[in-house]
Design a protein that fits this description.
Structural class: alpha/beta
CATH topology of the largest domain: Rossmann fold
CATH architecture of the largest domain: 3-Layer(aba) Sandwich
Number of strands: 13
Strand order of the largest sheet: 9-8-7-12-13
Order of helices and strands: EHEEHEHEEHHEHEEHHEEHEHEHHHH
Distance between the termini: 16 Å
Helix content: 25-40%
CATH class of the largest domain: Alpha Beta
Radius of gyration: 22 Å
Number of domains: 2
């Protein structure tokens, strides 16, 4: 049995991500062993071996030990571009990323292989399958039976970013938000019903609230159950709104970082418009998901210029406020997406990762 050593183990984002991924790879390998007697590669994360760094270490530390192969863990392409000048273009890297991008489309002077691990998609699959998971019971798969929108749209935007600031400025100046449930960095920008329906939390100093609490687990009093304000959106917010305006994590480069913002809509069947990266919807389509091109114009997805894409999204929002959706058409799209989510597997990613550890490649 071949053995690949990483480490030694560190309790950091990068190593934890790699450890979780290798756990999935191991389950895949042993399935192949049981079915086809294909011998697995053994991965050891507790011995001295291939170095593992994450973007947060590389932006704060210059004491690197580069070997022939290093694992770099990032969340997005944008993060990878921030650290690429600290890497050694004579070495080989494995980049584990929550975003996918076409390596050939970006002239990055490094020898690296991209391993795309969509953690939010994987997490949602786990939630749908695990009745012992709090979130299993928080996802209402019969949402469309209770869909009774009295308000225009739902738009819950998290942390402040430069391009998000511009989009929210355009949104507030070009769209009447008074009949929407809209917030940015915790501040209510639309109808005040949001404050009564949404999960209660202190909004007086919203930036501190978001940075310190919004993305951390919160324990339900007198229990061992935890939830997260970022992941937990009350179903009532979806029942009451006609569609979602999803402001995704990235919007400037052609990378595809699918988060819970989009996945909630796919699972529930809530129609959505995305302010995200160009061709984001087409990437969802390549994964087998259906969006809403049969119900409204999604050509904004092809616009490369971010300012023009923002304007096109805003024009579409104003249009969708005035239409009524066919519930049966929404159900067909939702059912397709739920089946696709259940069927979606990472075999190609696992095979690619295992192929990187052919003895000739080390």
């Amino acid at each position: 049995m071949r053995q690949i050593k990483f480490g030694p183990f560190q309790d950091k984002f990068g190593f934890q991500s790699l450890k979780s991924f290798i756990d999935h790879v191991d389950h895949y390998q042993y399935t192949k062993y049981l079915e086809h007697n294909i011998q697995p590669i053994q991965f050891d994360l507790n011995s001295k071996g291939i170095n593992v760094y994450d973007v947060f270490e590389l932006t704060t530390n210059n004491d690197f030990q580069f070997t022939a192969t290093n694992v770099i863990v990032v969340e997005t392409l944008k993060q990878f571009l921030l650290i690429k000048n600290k890497l050694d273009n004579s070495k080989k890297y494995i980049v584990l990323s929550e975003s996918f991008w076409d390596i050939k489309s970006f002239n990055i002077d490094l020898h690296y292989e991209l391993v795309y691990v969509p953690w939010d998609l994987i997490d949602c699959q786990n939630r749908l399958a695990n009745r012992s998971n709090l979130y299993f019971h928080l996802m209402d798969l019969n949402f469309l039976e209770k869909f009774n929108p009295q308000m225009d749209f739902l738009c819950l935007v998290g942390r402040s970013k430069h391009w998000r600031d511009k989009f929210i400025d355009k949104l507030t100046n070009n769209v009447d938000l008074s009949n929407s449930l809209t917030s940015y960095y915790g501040q209510c920008l639309g109808h005040q019903d949001l404050l009564a329906i949404d999960v209660p939390y202190e909004r007086n100093n919203s930036k501190i609230e978001f940075e310190e609490k919004f993305y951390k687990p919160i324990r339900i009093a007198d229990t061992n159950y935890h939830y997260n304000l970022s992941y937990f959106t009350r179903n009532e917010l979806f029942y009451k709104t006609k569609f979602s305006v999803v402001v995704e994590t990235e919007a400037e480069l052609e990378e595809y970082h699918i988060t819970e913002k989009t996945i909630k809509c796919l699972v529930l069947g809530h129609p959505f418009v995305v302010m995200g990266t160009p061709r984001y919807l087409k990437f969802l389509n390549t994964l087998g998901f259906k969006t809403y091109s049969t119900l409204f114009d999604e050509s904004y997805d092809d616009i490369l210029d971010i300012n023009q894409r923002m304007q096109s999204v805003i024009d579409l929002i104003n249009h969708l406020k005035n239409i009524t959706f066919d519930i049966q058409a929404l159900k067909q799209i939702q059912e397709h997406n739920l089946i696709n989510l259940i069927k979606l597997r990472n075999q190609d990613t696992y095979e690619k990762f295992l192929g990187l550890f052919d003895v000739r490649n080390i």
